[in-house]
Design a protein that fits this description.
With about 350 residues, the protein is mostly helical. The protein is built from 15 helices and four strands. A hairpin with a 2-residue loop joins β3 and β4. The structure holds cytidine-5'-monophosphate. It comes from Favolaschia claudopus.
Length: about 350
């Protein structure tokens, strides 16, 4: 079976899945730290982070899309800078570009809610609860992409929900300690608010991902052009909360309101998020949303080990049990007995 494009001999499909797992772990830890390491009075605005994410991701996608424009050697005009720009503009503002407005709005909501969740839940709790994305993604894949699921896969989804619930009731998790004081103790967290945010973020993630996959795979349009369209449609909804911020404090300038308290950790969060967005697009193109779920639950194990190494991680039996159930459920979901002669099932190799 074709493996698609490769980088240094490694298929892009597997490379992007593994990198996404590492990126997911890094993002949870960095984002959580960036939110809880300062008192609320010195917190940066998540709305700015979401907005900057779209600006940077859109610009990178635009550059890549531009470099990929192919013009026939016979068409001299199409090969000039202006000719190529016109060509790109025509691709970006195509007749069906409006289709990207749906995932764009959903992703902006999700990206904002992710900050609410990460600021109100322990990093590990957040990450495991966020696995419910697999559930919503599967649901929307069945509904919109007409994917057929076997009974063990439905069972795996049930198991996943149980695992997430078990982790929810765990008591201690990641404690980032500075000068002997757990940072989370100085930062008030509202677990219910965090959990509601996670649930809605999982719904929007599933729908947006599947919708993006549908648009991408039902047309010939280049992935990077689709990404530019996605970012363009995100700008308006991402700008709305930023404008609200400005309107509530108009005596300050635009830029200083926007980047108030926006320090190194905030920028690190944005950069890791930009990288993740680009990777997610690659994963959706070269594999699919359900395999993306597999990569992200691998990231639970990575974060778990990183937390033990980096932070004063208190492991509880319920946390370990819940996490094991989540990982087992993910394994079961991706396990297709007919192809079990090798490890091929794990990544859907054929
Ligand atoms: O958690 P999930 O995998 O649904 O997160 C997707 C993330 O990737 C979102 O932050 C979204 O903005 C980003 N994304 C992107 N470009 C795509 C698809 C997703 O930037 N084509």
């Amino acid at each position: 079976a074709p493996v698609g494009p490769t980088l240094c001999g490694i298929p892009l499909k597997y490379l992007s899945l593994v990198t996404l797992a590492v990126q997911n772990s890094a993002l949870t830890l960095i984002m959580h730290y960036s939110r809880v390491s300062t008192p609320p009075s010195r917190a940066y605005s998540p709305a700015t982070a979401v907005f900057m994410n779209e600006i940077l991701k859109g610009s990178i996608s635009l550059l890549i899309a531009f470099s990929r424009i192919e013009a026939p050697p016979s068409d001299g005009q199409a090969r000039t800078l202006i000719g190529r720009s016109k060509r790109l503009a025509r691709d970006v503002f195509s007749q069906d570009c409006w289709k990207l407005s749906i995932p764009a709005i959903l992703y902006v909501i999700q990206n904002n809610l992710q900050f609410v969740a990460v600021s109100n839940l322990q990093a590990a709790t957040f990450q495991v609860s966020y696995q419910m994305k697999i559930l919503t993604t599967a649901g929307f894949s069945v509904l919109l992409l007409r994917k057929k699921l076997a009974s063990p896969q439905w069972f795996a989804l049930l198991l996943l929900a149980i695992g997430v619930a078990v982790v929810q009731i765990q008591a201690g998790a990641v404690r980032i300690v500075e000068d002997g004081v757990p940072l989370e103790d100085t930062h008030s967290m509202n677990a219910l608010k965090g959990f509601v945010a996670v649930v809605i973020a999982c719904l929007t993630s599933g729908l947006a991902g599947v919708y993006f996959e549908m648009v991408l795979k039902n047309s010939q349009t280049d992935l990077w052009v689709r990404n530019v369209q996605l970012s363009l449609f995100s700008l308006l909804p991402a700008l709305a909360p930023v404008s609200y911020l400005y309107a509530s404090n108009p005596q300050e300038g635009w830029l200083s309101t926007l980047f108030h308290n926006f320090g190194g950790w905030a920028w690190a969060t944005v950069l890791v998020q930009v990288f993740g967005g680009l990777l997610t697009a690659l994963v959706i193109k070269y594999s699919d949303n359900i395999l993306k779920g597999f990569a992200t639950s691998l990231s639970i194990v990575i974060s778990f080990m990183a937390s033990v190494a980096l932070f004063d991680f208190q492991i509880t039996l319920t946390f370990v049990t819940g996490s094991l159930i989540v990982v087992l459920a993910t394994w079961l979901y991706n396990h297709q007995p007919k192809r079990s002669e090798s490890f091929s099932w794990a990544f859907g190799w054929t």
